[in-house]
Amino acid sequence: MKKLKNTKNKQYTLFTPGPTEVPDFVLQASAQSLVYHRESNFSKLYQAVNEHLKAVFKTKGRVFIFTASGTGAMEAAVANLVSRNEKALVAICGKFGERWKELLTRYGAYVRTLDAPYGKTINPQELERKLKTDDTIKYVFTTLTETSTGTLIDIKAFGEICHKLNRLLIVDCIAGLAADEFQMDNWHVDVAIGASQKALFTPPGLSFLACNDKAWQIIEKSRNPRYYFDLLIAENFHKKNQTPWTPAVSIFNGLLAALQYVTKKGIEHSWQRHQTIAEYVRTYLTKLNIELYSEKPSNALTVVKMPEYIDSTKIIEYLKNKYHILFANGQAELKGKIIRIGHMGLYDKKTFAQILNYFTQVYQKMLKK
Questions:
Q1: 159 and which of 6, 132, 188, 268 could share a cystine (Cβ 3.0–4.6 Å)?
Q2: Model-level pTM greater than 0.85?
Q3: What percent of the chain has pLDDT over 70?
Q4: 217 vs 220: CA distance, rounded Å
């Protein structure tokens, strides 16, 4: 069979849950000549990116942009909000929920958890029950899309509960932003985190933190030690449409091109496009009796569960070497047991028909061994 057209002169095409394949027009924008980050041209670029990000987050609040991975923005949220010995609840159904717990612990918070088995989502009623039994919990941390398992969490319900009980809700939207529906202001989310390399199909290197006025009042009073991620410093530069530290200017250029593409069509169109691809992928696989891993899957990726006698690592390596397409393995204890197929970015059904054909051929070949 022929390889994908866009794999020429490339090691492979990415179908991982981030980084995602970057379209040519974003790469071209990223290759523009650099501008000085203390000059007016960068301020215009920063302002444009910031306004488009507000449209993507669906917020009228502040949006800060860091030259850092998504974990950097997660750390910024913890460092600027949660003081030592304050109590936070982390809703966990995968590795990135666990990352919130690790960050909070490092910053001296007292952490309680609401856990769901991997592949399962978290029942909002359980969240409400936990919060009602402990008035000292001030913050709730969770994920929109748990990238390690492909599971979606009902953030709208979480937001209603936290708003009613006067708790702050902080959401890692890194994988789900622009793929899964997310309405920060309408859903009462106080802080949201995103990054460039997922459904915004831009190279890695920028992350974002959006916050509302309720969260900002706490940030202004916080005296936690921080420097690079200090939002009070960032706010002084934000007012001038600049960043406090040297930004990744090239990625700003690429991100603006991607954001203009997304917002011109409307963020709702991006959600629907990802949903259409996700439904196509899952219908294709289930017709072949291939088991899906998540009970409530995200639009951003599909996770396939392997039979006990098949190592997903072998399938991933075979597809990479023969067809030059790359899927993602499971993480930690899930390595070798699942395959994560990312469908973030500008792919269409025709592309997925081709790669799923490759995948099922290899999968069925392994079944016969």
A1: 188
A2: yes
A3: 97
A4: 5
